[in-house]
Amino acid sequence: SLSTFSLSLACSCWTKFEKVKMGATGSKFDLAKSVDMLVNEDGVDIEEGFAAFCSETISLSTLYETVPGEAVRHFITTKEEKFFELVNMCSHTLLDKVEEGNQAGHYDRSTAIAAMNCLRALARLISVAHEFTTGDVFEGMTDTFWTIEDGTTLGIVLANAIGSLLFGVGLSISSNAANSKIWEAGVGVQTVPKIGRGFDSNRTEILRCMLALCSSSVFYDPDEYGLVKNRWVEAFTGSAFTLSRELFYSLFNIVLNYDPRGGWGIPFANLFSGDEFEALFETSLHVLIVFFDYTPPRQQSLALDQRVSTPTVVENREVQERAVSEQKSNEVESEAKEEDLVKAEEEAGVKEGEEEAEVKADEVKEGEEEGEKVEEVEEAEEAKQSDEKDEDKVGENEDDAQEAGDDGYENKMIIYLSEMKQDWEVQKVIGHITYLLFNHTHGQKGWMSIAYDSVEAHTELLILLWRCLTENRACMQFLILRSDLEVLLTAMLSIIGGQRKSSAAQGPIHIVAFILLLLSSDRNFAVRLNQKCKHVPDGIKVPSGQYCLADHTLMVLYKCVIDSMPELGRLKECFLTVMTNLSPYIRRWSMAASESFCRLFDYFFSERSFLQREEDHVYLAHLFDFVNNVLQYQYADNPPFLYALLRRERTISRIIALAQAPLRPPTDSASAPHPPSPTTPRLEKQPSVEQLIK
């Protein structure tokens, strides 16, 4: 799923940690020796070694290098009690140091070192403990961090403590930014005090520790992913996290302020800027997409309660309807009887005494019928009241199930993303994502690959763009109506066209396909594709001014359909759907694009494609929808397309003949031809499609 892919991509950043040397050469060996003693020996005093650990400056990369995953797994399985003792010690020491820093209003050196080392140790230990998705370790982690005490849990308290580290004076921000707390100016806040790049390394390490804590979803299968809560993500994105607004705008503005050209826009300016801000940019992207991608699982009891409660409501409604219908039928019968009586009295001329007796009898009978009607109405009213009670009960069951499912959880990050409505904010978001994607696709060509840094986090940028379009309607409308569509579309098409044969590029290709499918469903997007391309791509021989964005889109999608890796076979229908969605609104297709499209008839009606799987006929249906749209809406302005279509007359005629051919009834076994004997010579080659049709 997309959620598992984005989280796996975020956690892969751990392998890119820069090898940071420690201040003293002997401290690394002391740490390694202490870890070895803790894992392999008994009777080791944890408190003594932990005090030394908190007083030494140790980077996250050094900790991951010195404490391998195998050592932590062995420590968990062999000394589970010691493991949880160490986890509790790290947690409470971190809370104490954060409280000291908050009370002092500033993190001094010793407090910052101790707090950061405790956070690094927690990230290392918990990231390995997440691998145990069941058993005693999983239950112990749940009891340690998510048992409610005094109205809260240790996990929520730790999440707020980590938020305090992200905005701690002297650790992540300077004293002049203590009021605003947001790292960079941009969306949400237009001006913040200048604090320089001196805190970027600390911010990056804290964010990487947050990713380690939130990595439990990586260890579940895609089928299990949607059924299991990620409590750490809920702790950082829920209403209990007090710094959610500052965190969202800080991370988002870091992304929007990153410039691979060094900020000056001149060649080789990147040589004068450090790599710390680039690492912070990538880590901020990872954290954002992990937070945006989380949705709490739905409880299965909701559907079960609805199935159990609904039949009672239906039965009561049936009783009520039956009572009403019987009441109406009784009224009709009584009226018919009265008419018959009146008619009989006129014809027979009965005496007045007899008439009075009959009238009395009728009155008694009508009284009895009215009594029966009253009883039926009362039964209907009782059925209606029981119906309403059952409906209220169903609603209460739904509310209880929802409260049990997410405990009133709302993803604050998605809420803040959807609240960006101002024009300048939306323009900045879409414009900068377009700029970074264009830098990735065109910054690797010629001398630009040396003069400028290329953005390597293009997959994360595509995921962020997808979330902006799906969660914020203003971003969608701005991209379709007012953005620099040629630059963005060219960048996305370059990604899927240039990497369509690379197995490592399946993720970005899928995301681009989803974005194109979403955009093609909007009429205004398709109309804007009539815009002429300023630069015709290499290898396409089309006169200047006769090649539009729709032509370029169709040409790239054509290559992805007929010449790509087998793993992209499931996207063929998606690519053809995009073409079909655009076809009614494109005024004129170029000759190159028309010829490429008509070649798809030969490709999908070939023996290897059409006869390969029984569902492949759907591709031909999309092609005929495309042709029908062009002929119905844009017939007069498309001579090149009509010419290319007439050149495929034979192929299209064979397809139509096959579709109109009557099905042959099954033959009896007696009259069925016998299979050829072993001596019968075999055909030298397989029959062609035309022979099969005949």
Protein architecture, described:
The protein is 66% helix and 0% strand. By secondary structure, it is mainly alpha-helical. The chain is built from 32 helices and no strands.
Question: What order do the helices and strands come in, and which of them pair?
Answer:
Blueprint: H1 2-11, H2 25-40, H3 46-54, H4 60-66, H5 69-78, H6 80-104, H7 109-129, H8 136-146, H9 154-166, H10 200-213, H11 222-225, H12 231-237, H13 244-257, H14 276-292, H15 300-348, H16 352-406, H17 412-418, H18 423-442, H19 448-451, H20 458-471, H21 473-481, H22 485-498, H23 506-520, H24 523-528, H25 549-562, H26 572-582, H27 591-604, H28 607-610, H29 617-633, H30 639-646, H31 649-660, H32 689-693
Helix pairs in contact: 1-14, 2-5, 5-6, 5-7, 6-7, 6-9, 7-10, 9-12, 10-14, 13-14, 14-20, 15-16, 18-20, 18-21, 18-22, 20-21, 20-23, 22-23, 22-25, 23-26, 25-26, 25-27, 26-29, 27-29, 27-30
